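User: I'm new to structure prediction. If I give you an amino acid sequence, what do you actually give back? Let's try with this one:
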Amino acid sequence: MRFTLLIPAIGLVAACNTVAPVQGTGFNTSQYQAQREAALAGQGYTGNPLVGPVDVSEQQLGAPGSAPTGDNADIASATAAALANTSGQSTLTQAPLSASGNNAISDEQDFAAVSGRRTIESDAALIQQNRQTYEVVAPTAVPQRGSDGQPNIVQYALSTSNPVGTQLYSRAGFNLEAKAQRNCAKYPSPDQAQIEFLANGGPQRDRNGLDPDGDGYACGWDPSAFRSAVNN
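Assistant: Good question. You get back a string of structure tokens that encode the predicted 3D arrangement of the chain. For your 232 residues, that looks like this:
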């Protein structure tokens, strides 16, 4: 009983250990798969036998300098024929650069070329011509800035010296700070507020309530930037 069961087991192990042929030229994967499945199922395979890989030619290459033989001779003759067909064709040549026209290369650094066109006398005449056409422009006074009828805050900044917040002028009334905040919100910038302040009697008078602390500067306008520009 043990001997009878051992024989099928050995056959199954042998079928599983069958080495698959290496895939190469002429190898049919579907045929090999069908044959392998039939062998594992214990059935015979009647299809075409598997075609093994093509062997590499064992023909030895000739020694250096020897004439080619066999297939190598055919390749050598074909190469020689291709070279013979192209031997009559001319090779590409680069055209020389032209020294004329808009694309000419300057030769001003070539003493031999320049000496043939220019002399010491011609250079002296050219220098004299340039001197005759040379014109000296005398400097003139800077034009005065035109006035548009509005106060000049730059001149006002340079004419003052008190820091921001130092009271120089009296201001009377109630809730001056709250009133100044509402009125200053109407102007796009402190510069515009200062111009309006000076145009309406400032800095002595503050008719629009723009200078509650009486320092002469409306809506937080600061003249220190203009002073620094002049000092530097």
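You can read the tokens as a compact description of the fold. Here is one thing that stands out. The chain is about 40% helix and 0% strand.
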